[in-house]
Amino acid sequence: MQTLTKRQKQILDFVGEYIKKSGISPTYEEIKKRFKLSALSTVHQHVEALINKNYLIKNENSSRGIEIKKTIDDFIQIPLKGTIAAGQPIEATEERETIAVPKINLPETSDIFALRVSGDSMTGENISDGDIVIIKSQSTADSGQKVVALIDNCEVTLKKIYKEKNRIRLQPANLRMNPIYVKPENLMIQGIVIDVIKNITTELQAEEKKVVQYKELPLNKIICGDCVDTLKNLPDNSVDMVVTSPPYDEVRKYNGFSFNLHETGKELFRVLKDGGIVAMVIQDQTKNFGKSLTSFRTIVDWVDNIGFKLFETVIYRKYGTEGAWWKYRFRVDHEYMPIFIKGERPAYFNKEPLKVPSKHGGKVMTGSGNRKTDGTTTKTITRQINAMKCRGTIWDYLNAGDKNPLKRKHPAVFPDKIPYDFIQCFCPKDGIVLDPFVGSGSTVVTAKQLGRKYIGIDISEEYCELSKERLKTVNEGLFDKLK
Ligand SMILES: C[S@@+](CC[C@H](N)C(=O)[O-])C[C@H]1O[C@@H](n2cnc3c(N)ncnc32)[C@H](O)[C@@H]1O
Question: Are residues 142 and 269 in the same domain?
Fold first, then answer.
């Protein structure tokens, strides 16, 4: 036989394992999923190559038509007798199917049958819902063996058996479940488990969900992937602040990707340090004269169901562009910027850089006295008005794309000045800023300019590359020099 490439060998092994475990071959789609290949055509190419090299055979009339070049003698047909409960005992059911299992590992006896497992009481023994167990018929078992137990002549269950004084304990392999105790005369052992054929679909799903957390934070990196999946890889309590703008209401099509704001909120809450902040830029879509309410719903959901505190909702007022003329509604020139805290209070808060000029700065003015709670007023005083004052809750930003040709390649950016303000106010000097919807990279670019560490995530490869391009052009500390 001819030599194989690394990928061909991996696919061949996967097909072999799959057939061994499930008795059928995988579909092309399953192979694509398993190896995270981008296109089915790539799977076809690999399978064709394996056929040409004489490792696989293909049956054109079946979606599961790939076979390893093995003879039929390698398998044996055994009866699949029905479903067994790995949970509460259920009434025994009879089916008249057969299943092909690899001969290897089977004892030389004809008293073998298979049962499909239902329930999760045996997960501790790697027997899960949907798996098939291979049973050797026998009426006795040693303590600790996995048995098919018939109770009161009507219900069967799959459990580990332990003989105790005057009773039999049928023990689940699942800490959440209690044992069943039966009198010896009420129990009949029908067989013992000798092998398990894993349900490959649930195995693949579990494998897909397996979360491997980063040993070290991927600092100053852009990660391409779904934000919820990627955030799962980040450790708890590791990030100081998030500045982001989700693709709400599918207003723009961002290459057709979808997202889940509730799950994103849950993961952000987990990865934030105590006192960490999420600053979000969000608006509602208008449809048939009504607003979608996504922004309000998200705020309520994140506070009521996820555990954030709403520190403030700032209005981002846009200026600098003419905007369209809307015949039947107002021209919307604002977005919302809810600021969420994890924990009691912001771990870092420095609003000095956010101060705004006072209209009457430098003048000496005599104001009216303050009104007291009993209705009387304090004496008026003369005071000099400071040149700068505390910023309010309406923040104005020039909305003209930052005159950056790279940034213009993205359809929905926010001005760099937004993360610039938030980061200075809420992120400590050595802190980490995260943007799970990084887009053109406005947040990470600004974090880098302000000397903070950053992590950016975007599902679109195109936008990840765009962020990386922008990051290359950044002069760390540039903003500080401009101030
Ligand atoms: C409003 S844009 C962010 C723009 C960014 N604030 C900027 O100034 O460049 C939203 C981004 O979310 C990305 N996105 C959509 N679904 C996603 C998902 N499930 N996971 C990660 N990113 C996603 C889109 O590709 C898009 O780039």
Answer: no
Cβ–ligand 1 contact at 226 (below 6 Å): yes
Tokens of 279: 């600053």
Expressed in angstroms and rounded, the spacing between residue 246 Cα and the centre of ligand 1 is 6
- Closest C-alpha to 315, from 299, 343, 334: 334
Q: Going by CA atoms, what residue is nearest to atom 19 of ligand 1? A: 259
Assess whether 197 and 128 both reside in one domain.
Answer: yes
414 lines ligand 1 (CB under 6 A): yes
Give per-residue pLDDT as tens, 175-200: 667 789 999 999 999 999 998 877 76
Predicted pLDDT of residue 382: 83
Q: Are residues 11 and 31 in contact, defined by beta-carbon separation less than 8 angstroms?
A: yes
Structurally, how many domains does the chain consist of? 4
Q: What is the mean pLDDT of residues 318-335?
A: 86
- Structural domain boundaries enclosing 156: 72-202
E strands along 345-478, which residues? Answer: 356-357, 364-366, 382-384, 388-389, 394-398, 432-435, 453-458
Whether residue 1 is contained in a domain is answered as no
Minimum-distance ligand 1 atom for the alpha carbon of 467: 9
Q: Which of 243-247, 321-325, 382-386 has the highest mean pLDDT?
A: 243-247
User: Do 215 and 183 share a structural domain?
Assistant: no
Measured from the CB, is residue 257 less than 6 Å from ligand 1? yes
Whether residue 470 lies inside any domain: the answer is yes
- Is the CB–ligand 1 distance for residue 466 below 6 Å? no
For ligand 1, atom 9, the nearest C-alpha belongs to 440
pLDDT at 255 over 60: no
> From CA 303, how far away is CA 366, in angstroms rounded?
43
User: Are residues 423 and 369 located together in one domain of the fold?
Assistant: no
pLDDT at position 23 is 78
Per-residue pLDDT at 145 exceeds 90: yes
Does residue 258 sit in the same domain as residue 382?
no
Question: What is the CA(144)–ligand 1 centre distance, in A?
Answer: 53
Q: pTM surpassing 0.70?
A: no
Q: Ligand 1, residue 457: give the atom nearest the CA.
A: 21
Give, for ligand 1, the residue of 233, 243, 254, 423 to mutate: max count of ligand atoms closer than 8 Å to Cβ: 254
In CATH, what number is assigned to the domain containing residue 327? Answer: 3.40.50.150
Write out the catalytic residue numbers: 121, 159
pLDDT digits (tens, 9 = 90+) for 410-442: 988 999 999 999 999 999 999 999 999 999 999
Last residue of a domain, one of 160, 182, 202: 202
SS3 state of residue 294 = helix
The model's pLDDT over 289-301, given as tens digits with 9 standing for 90+, comes to 999 888 999 999 9
Same-domain check for residues 312 and 437:
yes
Question: How is the chain split among helix, strand and coil, in percent rounded to 5?
Answer: 30, 30, 40
Ligand 1 pocket: which of 458, 461, 466, 471 to mutate (most atoms <8 Å of CB)? 458
